[in-house]
Design goal:
It is built from no helices and 10 strands. It has 112 residues and is mainly beta. A 6-stranded mixed β-sheet has the order 2-10-9-4-5-6, with no helix packed on it. A 4-stranded antiparallel β-sheet has the order 1-3-8-7, with no helix packed on it. A hairpin with a 5-residue loop joins strand 4 and strand 5.
């Protein structure tokens, strides 16, 4: 069974940082392109970043320079370091594998 479990969300002030984690199981993680997407209130799901096993990470323009994706094959985990957070970053964050499977998500709220 494919399983993705996100964690690390929470409430943070504008300008703050969070590090999201996603633990994966049930598929060949090291070969899978892993992505982070988010669903902001009232908006469509938005792709944020992807990391492949042999290519540099890629980022959507709104998060480029602020977010960093990384992957730990030994731990079957993917991470999203989020810095300089803004109110517009509020939403539910999901990790996603190559097949499009997502976890349950983790809520990120940026507010003062």
């Amino acid at each position: 069974e494919v399983r993705l479990v996100e964690s690390g969300g929470g409430l943070v002030q504008p300008g703050g940082s969070l590090r999201l984690s996603c633990e994966a199981s049930g598929f060949t993680f090291k070969w899978s392109t892993m992505s982070w997407v988010r669903h902001a209130p009232g908006k469509e799901v938005e792709w944020l970043s992807s990391i492949d096993y042999n290519l540099p990470p890629i980022y959507a323009d709104p998060v480029k320079g602020r977010f960093t994706i990384s992957k730990d094959k030994a731990k079957n985990s993917v991470y999203l370091q989020m810095d300089s957070l803004q109110a517009e970053d509020t939403g539910i964050y999901y990790c996603q594998n190559s097949a499009g499977t997502r976890g349950q998500g983790t809520q990120v709220t940026v507010s003062s």
